[in-house]
Specification:
The complex is a heterodimer.
Chain A lengths: L2 H32 L6 H16 L6 H23 L5 H22 L6 H12 L2 H10 L7 H23 L13 E4 L3 E4 H23 L1 H11 L1 H6 L4 H23 L10 H14 L5 H21 L4 H7 L1 H11 L13
Antiparallel strand pairs in A: 1-2
Chain B lengths: L1 H22 L2 H26 L7 H18 L4 H23 L6 H17 L11 E2 L4 E3 L2 E3 L2 H23 L2 H7 L5 H6 L4 H27 L1 E2 L6 H14 L5 H24 L3 H19 L3 H11 L27 E12 L2 E12 L3 E5 L6 H8 L7 E6 L2 E2 L5 H7 L1 E3 L12 H8 L8 H5 L4 H17 L15 H14 L4 E5 L7 H16 L3 E5 L3 H5 L4 E6 L2 E6 L1 H6 L1 H8 L4
Classes of the chains: A mainly alpha, B alpha/beta.
């Protein structure tokens, strides 16, 4: 391996790492607030990429149908819950929140589709269209069992991934798409080594977004509410934070991140309806390095995963995924050595 | 009555399975073969997840390792499929041991997440190894031969599959009702509980993990020689989830859930494959959607699975097993207690810090054999922390503890328990769904040796009878023998503390360490406890006790150690301590 190859691989690795960093932040966000390991995160990434591809091809994105289907389900669940509690007065609000709100980006997307508009508009439309997905599926499938054990939630989350990827196949079909680069050209580093502008954009986006993320968490009231819920659900409820609303906020934030990631990766990889799963899982490796709780460690983990993947693909393209998941073993080993003597006071798990 | 009813049902089910191939066509028999293979994997998951509380999303990978192992050995080397079985089990067991050793120390969600990683990697690996035929897999695997018969058709291999399923169920049932099984069932109570009875939670969990993988391995071997073709896709993550779905659908709480769940899932899958193409042209794409939706509904409305639901219905009508002490057996050997007055426990300069808080500061005291020593002090004085240091539940920052002449300052909790120190907990650690008798029998863990294999094959019955005789005797001692078969969770909290004492006594300890045993007891119960502890002292037992009820302590103990703000305040006879002004001011404030 020459220095040039190593440099190219590193640049690639950093770009991958940027994607895993953003995805890892989303996963840690959802887990810390809801204790759900949000496996469908990757599917939302794929849907965002495929939506953008549909816009580019001048078609109406099938995502509209998907989002409306999910909204109908969520609305039905919400109305059913209210009807059983006989809280009919709150139904209009539910109608607005679960029916109308998710329909807004659909209308926008429908209006945008088939026209020649600046790329920015279609990108915004793509991201806006996938934002409702995570809150909606969470409302339907996860909120009713929000108090179950982490394991039950994890099983449900995995089932949800299979549901979404099945729906993805149904709505988007089995074909793969790749979109136009968001930015063209390349930058030549000193030494004559070129880095594509898309790579730089991905890295820059990761830095900016994680910075924003930090500010949001440290400086705003909503961010503090999220953190409070993460630390102690009962305590947060006692001071007037509603876990269901905080959870919806976390899912919305995660969905937004997933939408951004989808738009960022769509020009560099061919995306299929189920491509997101692997991206999500690799972000999990990063999140596990961060113990599913530390943002800085997750960021470091994401970069490590990206670099390992890029160098592994040079060595053996077919086995690169095995190598990345194999990374978990030393990480877990280290963790198990570090936590070996910590006593678990509440290992009680419900069935 | 209930026993006989269950027996009849079992005979009926076995007869139905045995006679099914006579009545059914080959398609249905083939489906039953698949159900049997699925049930084996689900059985492992019921043990691992339902009983042991550890979820695996990679069980299909173990099926794959075994299937590929036997397929490779029999095709590449022409070995007999019967030789493939030990080879497949060996490889599966080794893989599970390796993976388990690396990941099973992880708490809560890390283990299942790591199982996703290898559940995904292992099938990927199969698809990239030339010797295993890459993505095309291995075909023309020889069928099993049994003397002159070749088990090549679904009908021919049916008997073997269901024989293996039957034996595995029998093995698992025996296992759960044994010494090893009680430890497995106690896993969800946490490592501290297991350590307190002298068991190693990590080892118990690892054994369980390997056992579950071996059931998957059996299934994989059968799969390879029943289908005579293996490829990576039936062992991927989706398949693992499907096995988990079987276990959840049937009911993780009972072994029968594995059989029922496998049958349910396979039947629904089959029906969907027939039905969905009729409903929509994209029907084949819909089946994973429908499957996932059914799974989610199950998690929302029937987390206990079908058998969990049925069992709740039946249990309310079922009678209880007969109350007997069991046949007379030779008692378990007992420890010889040190003669009264010999030094038993010496604590010197014990220190424990939690961050900046010094919970125990340079505390020293000693306990001699045959005496009852009380550890008292106001709330937050560090008494329970002191207990946790003695019993090895928490590591000490400085100081030393000697017990029976041995330095146990850095010893593991289970080693201290095995030396003869038995404890109870301030926050009761019982298994609420295990019977009183089983909870107490768990206490005798360190006195007995019976392993997992012996348990599964029922070779442990003599020792089991001894354990139950010992447990029964302790239950009688605390006056709960007539409730022996009720779940421990049905007892009021105070009585649960008594049950913990019985569990500690079942370990035949030298030193009994009791953390607030009288809390929550009524007057008459306290009186009974007082008498029990005095009787134990008369038998030569040494007791160290933390208690808030002063009347109870003063009337019982020989000596008192008073702690305040983590440090030792006073030590002496009850009357001296009561008169000490420092103790009075600690309890009542300065100037009292």
């Amino acid at each position: 391996m020459t220095w040039e190859v190593a440099l190219i691989l590193s640049a690639d690795g950093l770009a991958n790492g940027a994607v895993y960093l953003l995805a890892g932040l989303g996963l840690v966000l959802v887990f810390s607030v809801t204790r759900v390991v949000f496996v469908p995160f990757g599917d939302v990434i794929a849907f965002s990429a495929l939506t953008l591809a549909a816009f580019e091809a001048g078609r109406t994105p099938p995502t509209i149908g998907l989002v409306l289907t999910l909204a109908l389900l969520a609305l039905a669940a919400e109305l059913w819950r209210l009807a059983r509690r006989r809280e009919f007065a709150r139904m209009p609000r539910a109608l607005l929140l679960w029916g109308l709100l998710p329909a807004l980006p659909c209308v926008f997307a429908w209006a945008v589709a088939g026209r020649t508009l600046p790329a920015v508009v279609t990108i915004v439309a793509s991201i806006a269209l996938v934002v409702p997905i995570a809150p909606l599926i969470a409302r339907v499938a996860l909120q009713p069992i929000a108090d179950a054990s982490v394991l039950v939630l994890l099983i449900a989350s995995l089932a949800l991934h299979f549901l979404l990827s099945g729906l993805g196949l149904l709505f988007f079909g089995p074909e793969g798409f790749r979109t136009e680069p968001l930015v063209g050209g390349a930058l030549t580093l000193p030494g004559g080594f070129p880095v594509s502008a898309q790579t730089l954009l991905m890295i820059a986006a990761a830095i900016v977004l994680s910075g924003l993320f930090y500010l949001l968490f440290e400086r705003t009231l909503h961010g503090k509410a999220l953190r409070a819920t993460a630390i102690n659900r009962v305590g947060a409820r006692l001071v007037g934070i509603r876990p269901a609303r905080t959870a919806a906020l976390a899912y919305g934030g995660a969905s937004l991140l997933a939408g951004l990631i989808g738009v960022l990766v769509a020009p560099v990889t061919t995306m299929y309806y189920d491509s997101g799963f692997i991206i999500g899982l690799k972000a999990f490796v990063a999140a596990i390095i961060g113990g599913l709780s530390s943002y800085p460690l997750t960021a470091a983990g994401a970069l490590a995963v990206g670099l390992v993947e890029s160098f592994a693909s040079f060595w053996s393209g077919a086995l690169k995924d095995v190598i990345v998941f194999g990374m978990l073993i030393p990480v877990l080993l280290l963790r198990s050595l570090l936590v070996a003597r910590v006593e678990d006071e509440e290992e009680e798990i419900d069935g | 009555m209930a026993e006989r009813g269950a027996g009849r049902l079992l005979i009926a089910v076995v007869a139905a399975i045995a006679l099914a191939p006579l009545a059914l066509g080959s398609f249905a028999v083939g489906l039953l073969d698949d159900i049997g293979i699925g049930a084996l994997v689900a059985l492992g998951l019921v043990l691992l997840t339902g009983v042991g509380g550890a979820t695996s999303f990679g069980q299909a990978a173990f099926v794959g390792i075994a299937a590929y192992a036997s397929a490779w050995l029999t095709t590449a080397h022409g070995a007999s499929p019967w030789l493939g079985l030990p080879f497949a089990l060996l490889l599966t067991g080794l893989a599970a041991w390796l993976i388990g050793a690396l990941t099973l120390r992880l708490g809560g969600h890390f283990l299942p997440l790591s199982t996703i990683a290898w559940g995904l990697s292992i099938p990927l690996l199969f698809g990239n190894i030339d010797a295993l035929g890459r993505h095309t897999g291995i075909s023309n695997i020889p069928p099993l031969q049994f003397g002159p018969w070749s088990l090549i058709t679904p009908r021919a291999i049916y008997t073997l599959i269901w024989l293996v399923v039957g034996l595995s169920c029998w093995f698992s049932h025996n296992l759960l009702h044994s010494r090893a099984g009680r430890a497995i069932r106690a896993l969800r109570g946490g490592a501290t509980l297991l350590g307190s009875v002298g068991a190693d939670a990590y080892r118990v969990r690892l054994t369980l993990f390997v056992t579950a993988a071996l059931f998957a391995g059996l299934a994989g071997w059968l799969y390879a020689h029943a289908n005579r073709f293996v490829s990576p896709s039936p062992f991927d993550l989706r398949a693992s989830i499907e096995y988990l779905l079987m276990a959840v659908a049937g009911g993780l709480g009972q072994l029968s859930g594995a059989l029922v769940g496998a049958a349910l899932v396979m039947a629904v899958k089959n029906a969907l494959q027939d039905l969905l193409p009729l409903l929509s042209s994209r029907g084949s794409q819909l089946d994973s959607v429908v499957f996932a939706a059914l799974f989610l509904l199950l998690l929302q409305y029937a987390r206990g699975g079908l058998m969990g639901f049925l069992r709740r219905k039946i249990r309310s009508r079922a009678g209880r097993p007969a109350l007997t002490a069991g046949p007379a057996v030779a008692p378990l050997p007992r420890r010889s207690l040190p003669p009264p007055g010999t030094p038993l426990l010496q604590v010197a300069g014990a220190v424990k810090r939690f961050g900046g808080l010094v919970a125990v500061a340079e505390v020293s005291f000693a306990v001699s054999a045959g005496e009852i020593v009380g550890l008292i002090g106001p709330n937050g004085a560090g008494k329970s922390t002191m207990f946790n240091l003695l019993t090895g539940t928490l590591p000490m920052d400085a100081g030393s503890v000697r017990f029976l002449g041995q330095d146990i300052s850095a010893a593991a909790q289970r080693k201290i328990a095995r030396l003869g120190m038995a404890r109870t907990f301030q926050h009761v650690k019982l298994r609420p769904d295990m019977s009183l008798l089983d909870n107490v029998a768990l206490g005798a863990h360190s006195r007995t040796r019976g392993g997992l294999l012996a348990a599964g094959l029922r070779l442990d019955r003599a020792e089991e009878a001894q354990i139950f005789a010992a447990a029964w005797a302790q239950l009688e001692r605390i006056g709960l023998a007539e409730r022996a078969h009720e779940p421990a969770g049905s007892l009021p909290l105070g009585t649960q503390r008594l049950l913990e004492i019985a569990r500690a006594l079942a370990a035949d300890p030298v030193l009994l360490v009791l953390d607030e045993p009288a809390a929550g007891l009524r007057r008459r119960e306290k009186q009974a406890l007082l008498e029990l502890l005095r009787r134990l002292r008369a038998e030569g037992m040494t007791i160290l006790i933390v208690e808030h009820d002063m009347a109870f302590v003063m009337g019982l103990v020989d000596r008192l150690v008073v702690m305040n703000f983590g440090a030792k305040l006073v030590e002496g006879r009850p009357a001296e301590v009561r008169a000490d002004p420092r103790v009075q001011s600690a309890y009542l404030g300065v100037g009292a």
